[in-house]
Structures are given as C-alpha cells and as structure tokens.
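W.,

You were right to be curious about this one. When I first looked at the sequence I had no strong expectations either way, so I just let the prediction run and decided to look at it fresh. Below is the sequence, 308 residues in total, followed by the output.
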Amino acid sequence: MSNGGGRAAIHEDRKSAMPCNHEAAAGLDPGTPNIARVYDYYLGGNNNYASDREAARRVLGAAPDVPLAALENREFLRRAVRFLAEEEGIGQFIDIGPGLPTQGNVHQLAKSHDPHARIVYVDNDPVVHSHSMPLLRHVPGVAIISEDLREPERILSSPELRALIDFSEPVALCMSLVLHFMPPEDDPYGVVGTLRDALCPGSYLVLSHVTGDGRDADTLTEITGTYGEATAPLVMRSRPEVAQFFDGFELAEPGLVFISQWRPTAEYYAQGGTRWAYAGVGMKNAACSNIHSGGQGKSSVSSSERPL
C-alpha cells in the first residue's frame, strides 16, 4: 500500500492552481469545496480553488493514499470500457457523475474501440458543465445533460439522452465513484433499480464505490467530516451494501473486488492496491423484473462473487 508521499509532493507544487475563466465567470462559489474539483486535485489536475485544495489536504492527512485510489479508479474504468467495447460489443454508454474532463474519459475510451459509439454524460454539477461543454459540443455522438441522479425518471426521459441512446439495444450504465455521495434518504438503491429497469437484458452496470471496511474510526471521521463541508456528503458502504446495487445483474469475473483487483493488467494491482473502493461490472439478466418495486426477483450477485 502506497504511503502517498510522492503524490503529496506533487500536490504541494500545485498551490497556485486555478480553475478556468469560464467557471469563475459563471459565478460558481470558490469558497465551498466542490467534490468534482477535489477529485480533480487528487488526479493531478489544476482546475481547483484554495478551498478544494485545503479539503483535499485534510483528507490526505488522514489517508495519504487517496490520490492513488483515484488513479486506480480511472484505470478500472479504462479496463471496464475496454472489456465492454471489445469483448461484449457495447456501443452505447451512459456515464452518471463523470466529474471534470480528464484524459481517459468514457467517450475517448469507447470511441478508441468503436468510432461510432454513443455516449451521454449526466451531471447536475455546474462546475462539471462549465468545463465539459466547450470540449464536448462538437464531438459527434457525445452529449452531456444537466440532470440530478436523485431523479432517474428525468434522466431517462431527457430528449438529449433519447436522441443518442436506444434502450432496445444493450447499454453500459457507468456509475463510477458517484453513489457514495447519495445518503440513504435519497434512496440510492431505488434510483439504481429505476435505471436498471429501463435497460434491456444484455446491458451492463459499471460501478465503483468507496468503502470504510477495515479502516479505523478516526480516519473515517476525518474524511467524512471534510466532505460534510463540501458540496456533497460522503457515505461509505460495506461490501454487502455495495453488492446490493448489483441486484438483477450477473457479475462478470472476478466479481465485486477492490478497484485495483478488477482484471488487473500489472502485478501491483493483482497484489493489492489501496483498498479504498469496491468495483464490479454486471450484466442485466433476463429474469430481472421489479426487484426494487415489490417484486420477488432474485439477485444474481451471490452466485458470481468471489471472496476477497
């Protein structure tokens, strides 16, 4: 497990980083840490304010390997999209909560395998939109819509989404490090269930989620307390709680594992990684029906999981 020393030094070199002018012009609050800008800081970006860097440093004080976990998540997403595009022939992607644009976004990855792939990003964060719109406006087959994950019906009925995504064909629904920003009162399992029910059999869910499993209480308190002062709270969930999001999906091998262990391409990942988040890729099965709305459909997660 990395101690984060090298990453911490990189962060110190970016104290003067500033967001793009169009974000400042939009009147966005620079004094409140923004979860997208904090994540950008973890990834080595410079689209962040002093408040974001201070929040990130508080997290790093408790967990210095968090930036490495962020990079591991980008690599997981890269491997998952490659699997779906190359091996499963998926050409439609809905990415909810994509964060600020960086190298290796879903549309770049998918189109590198299939130039005709269609991708819709969904995010209600004005910071994300201010950075993404200029980059995506003229990219064929790609759109970003401003909708809230807590209102999945609005997402599904969006004219922009419907113009690109054909729900009679398999779709990859990507929810990478986003559901841990939904507290229980927002019904995250019901939200995922509504989105799942709109997908045809053969569609996929790509999901990663932060966990507090195996961590001491003081570390978790510092991290969640910092995010409590940001634009969204952080809700860590256990492995069984994360597995519940895959109700109605058959997990592809190796099942639900730490992000670095999902089909690793290097020995480092196979041996461990940071263990800050679980990840999995599941295919919707034909038997899935109304699991979250009172039906008795049986989750297929347990038959596909492997113990860590």
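Here's what jumped out at me. Confidence is low (pLDDT under 50) at residues 1-27, 289-308. And, maybe more interesting for your project: The beta strands are 92-96, 118-122, 142-145, 172-176, 204-210, 249-251, 257-258, 277-284.

Coffee later to discuss?

I.
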